[in-house]
Amino acid sequence: MTSEQKQFIISYLNGSNSIVIYGAGYYGLLLSNLIGELDDIDVTVVDDIKKGKCGSYTINNDNSFNTITGTVVITIKDLDIATSIAQRLYAQGVTDIRLLSNRLKEFLDVFSQGGKNLQVSNYHRDDLLNRLKSFNWRKLNKDYIAYSFRYLWSWMKKSFMPSNIENAVCPVCKGSARLLCVNVWNYFIMECVACTHVFVANVPSGNAIVDFYDGYEYFTQNCAHQGITSLTDDTQWQGWLNSRMQFLDFFHILDSFYEKPAVVLELGCCEGKLLERLKKLGHHVYGCDVNAGLAALAGRTLGIDIRAGTLEEAGFQHDTFDLIIAIHTVEHLTDPHGDLVRCWSLLRKGGRILIEVPIGETDYNNPHHLHFFSERSLRELFTKLFGNISMVPSCFADANGNFCATALTVAVKL
């Protein structure tokens, strides 16, 4: 290893002295060998199947990574698979996770070809076929079999289908977009040259996104920093609920529904506590959330119709709701424009939609946000469908106590 190569690896590790490499394929073993040449750095390679001296950890076992400390580098090239694995590890308490970046991949390719004169594409093909031949099918569970075939399909798809990243268009205004950066998750962050909207061009598959939000763990991660640990202890929720109700009071949204209760839908309702408060005030409430387990639990606990899945899958009837609420949800949607069109069709004439989203967010390494709105792009998104739009700045405290700029927007279906 040359001094320049050594410096690159040291810079990439950023001071970590304990590295876990997830993926015992081409890039994983190359990176393991390179790091092994450095002093005082502990390297462990793990995979779902044993290969050489690799461990046999599995992402399908909830306790599989509890004993691992240090930085986890996922050296799997396929974005969907790598993201799904990263999200599962994050749910198990592993926070220092890095995916195979373009820069690291190029470095490893150059190092390998210069040192061994390997053809990377042939190596991938032969390595994949050898791994498939060596599988002991009787010992593999159904999740890993599905994972393996996804890997095979992804390899075939990327071998024969060109990338459309360069031709990505803005999901808000359909304008042309330019590449802003590639984040640590290998997401291509694009910026619209017309409305300034920033978005992820290579959105992971629906299954990979659902995997992250699945289970009760997401509720605990989302609420723990606010001092909320229980779904049923109302004393923990007072401050949180009061802030949500202030949103409604600011725009006088509920003022006209004292005699006739409103029919309310919350998109991305999570545990449903805001809906419970509105229900106690006499309104008819419904919820929708992709977290199937939490939706079922909240529905049973609170006695509210909370439907699992996307808004499209929920099956609500057109012209049903007086109010639709989406608090810190729209930035997570794969197709915010499409879901706003659905919201418009679900609202009665004169019905309102209230949302809050981050504004001017620059943490493009946030693995959960697929859209980074500006005030201009948010207004652009709403004016295509609604009239009488009101937008006010607000703020909220993140997990570290830092205040972040947001925008509260209410729009009316004319």
From TrEMBL:
<feature type="domain" description="Methyltransferase type 11">
    <location>
        <begin position="265"/>
        <end position="355"/>
    </location>
</feature>
<dbReference type="InterPro" id="IPR029063">
    <property type="entry name" value="SAM-dependent_MTases_sf"/>
</dbReference>
<protein>
    <submittedName>
        <fullName>Methyltransferase domain-containing protein</fullName>
    </submittedName>
</protein>
<keyword id="KW-0489">Methyltransferase</keyword>
<dbReference type="Pfam" id="PF08241">
    <property type="entry name" value="Methyltransf_11"/>
</dbReference>
<dbReference type="InterPro" id="IPR013216">
    <property type="entry name" value="Methyltransf_11"/>
</dbReference>
<dbReference type="GO" id="GO:0032259">
    <property type="term" value="P:methylation"/>
</dbReference>
<keyword id="KW-0808">Transferase</keyword>
<dbReference type="GO" id="GO:0008757">
    <property type="term" value="F:S-adenosylmethionine-dependent methyltransferase activity"/>
</dbReference>
